[in-house]
Amino acid sequence: MKVTFPHMGNQYVATKVLLDELGVENIIPPECSKDTLDIGTKHSPESICLPLKVNIGNYIESVKKGADTVVITGSCGPCRFGYYSILQKEILKSMGYDNLKFILLDPPQGDYKGFFKRVYDLTNTKNPYKIVKALARATRTLYLLDEMEDLSYYKRPRQARQGEVDIHYDHFHRVVREAKGYKEVSTLIRDTIRKMKEVEEDPTRDVIKIGIIGEIYTIIEPFVNLNVEKKLGDMGVEIDKSLKISRWLTEHLYLSPLGLTAEKDVWRAAKPYLKTMIGGHARETIGYAVVYGKKGYDGVIQIYPLTCMPEIVAQSILPTVEKDYSIPYLCLIVDEMTGEAGYSTRLEAFVDLLRRRKEKAYNGELLSGN
Amino acid sequence: MSVKIGIPRGLWFYDYFPLWKTFYEELGAEIIFSDKTNKQILDQGVKNCVDEACLPVKLFHGHVINLKDKVDYIFVPKMMSVYKDEYICPKFCGLPEMVNHSIKGLPPLIDTEINFSKSRKSLMITAYRFGSYVTKNPIKIRRAFNNALMAYRKYREDVKDGKLPIDGEFSPKKPSVVANNSKSIAVVGHTYHLYDSYGSMSILQKLRDSKVSVIVPEMMNMNKINKLASTLEKKMFWSYGRKLLGAALHFGESREIDGIIYISSFGCGIDSIVEDLFERWSRSHSIPFLLLTIDEHTGEAGINTRLEAFLDMIDWRVNHESDLSPHG
After folding, report:
1. Tens digit of pLDDT for each residue in B102-124?
2. Is B266 contained in some domain?
3. Rounded to an integer, what distance in angstroms lies between the CA atom of residue A25 and that of residue A101?
4. Would you say residue B328 lies in a domain?
5. Residue B61 pLDDT grade (very low, low, confident, very high; cuts 50, 70, 90)
6. What stretch or stretches form a coiled coil here (chain B) (predicted)?
7. CB 3.0–4.6 Å: which of A81, B106, B243, B266 could bond B295 by disulfide?
8. Could you tell me the pTM of the whole model?
9. How far apart are CA A10 and CA A145, in angstroms?
10. Residues of A with CB below 8 A from B232's CB?
11. A307 and B85: CB-CB below 8 Å?
12. Strand pairing partners for B166?
């Protein structure tokens, strides 16, 4: 059994650790590229959101590399991610991949027997201790990865020589594919973190801060958001992302089955604008916009895939947040037609505006909030 | 003076309007519907809503603006879920907030939450919350709600009998004598597409004028559909999607229809999945399938041409079966 799974930012490193620790042979899909998206776009429904198209591309490229089992995850509504698993299965079947095995890891919804059977199918073991241990290690890897990400957000706008952080960052992604198991991977991450910390800083840089909010897949997968963290970093912007995979995993795997949540403060911040959850991450999008506003960030950028239902609701509410907290807001919508030049221009214009605004405020010339 | 409550003629309107109309009228409020969808409502809606929203949501904004200066309250409930473990589109869930933040100077909204995803136990409490905008008397509210439920059931029966609530008014019952060679075509889609004659460019009327007997999902036996839908590999968590996928399985099995027309709006997240599965399953049973995607730029002439071509194609398929394989 050679297992493959879809990409989402750095998540592949943790999933690889999980499968390695369980002794399951796995194939990491090639890095997302134009080809990946082309394959996905060709075979997916026209109006589905972008993540599904990229996922389909990932599967096909892995199958070409020899994978014979696909792990698909899902949720249970109201966002359409909940039905991804079934649709993806239908698409792959209609493409003629009849021998492909699917393991659908959806939340159990009462059917625990079926759920654990699927988990055992995937893990090749019924030893719960072994599974829990592997899972704990994968979670630790995710936290390390996010530590590395956060460091790169901090260092990029401050590095004295442009591009130095990315030398280490890209090197890590090249080497990690060959690493095996938790030990090797975590050493590699720690090495990269150490190297990044040593990158020389330019203390005279005027760094502005932007919060990135929006749909989780688009803000985490660099191919889909056209490397927004690198683009902004090179413009001298430090960013913070509202959603991180490590946090998402803790929330959904460990806390929510117990009825707990780590996002209470964010929900409270969103409450005056959006009272309940409406699926996806709309409530977090609004909550974090408020949080960034309160923390004195210079701006927020919302990124989401075209036709994403929860984010459309958030988009219609965010202008009010923008006014209430006087924090400039830019909305970027991505799909397979997004052109990089136009996207960069908008980012540059937004950053220019923020700098000018900051300067004005500094000089005491700014009279109105906007 | 009685309280004036405005009900926008959009989204859930065609599913539930008799219920809320009866409910509030029993309580002594005056109900005002917004005008039937027209050019002005469309334009206002498009102007006052985020560009990315789908046509029905934009139309709904237009309807709210239409009511804005006429009423004391506008009825925009927060519809989360009407069945256990099922949801409605996320845009429905966030509708009151969307409307409130997009349109300035609105009268207060009746934005009580309807959420039965855990259980239906809170039904009477929810009804009380809705009624409390007019009266605080729980006995009166309970009586009004029971009458409203009766009106709602009757409405459902009527629709099932083939009376279509186009623009919220019943069309004459379908002709009892249907010519022998008439085609029967299933027209599926959200109720706010099917029954909004401006938004859907009167597709239902056009089909009836061409002597086609029309079947809509609301006419079908819900028990049967529920049963079929429960055979799905994963539970469909959208109430509308479950109804449609059940219908798709039924059509495939029974083969009693000659073709399917699916009406969807551009950017509909639910249809991007349901429509695709529906189409795959229909085609695998070789039932002719036509997808009409509608947005604010759709031209009526194009829709007419496609409808005519589709109907002709079905005729040829029946008449020339032996010459060439029209099944492909």
Report:
1. 888 888 888 888 888 888 888 88
2. yes
3. 14
4. no
5. very high
6. none
7. B266
8. 0.88
9. 7
10. 86
11. no
12. B169
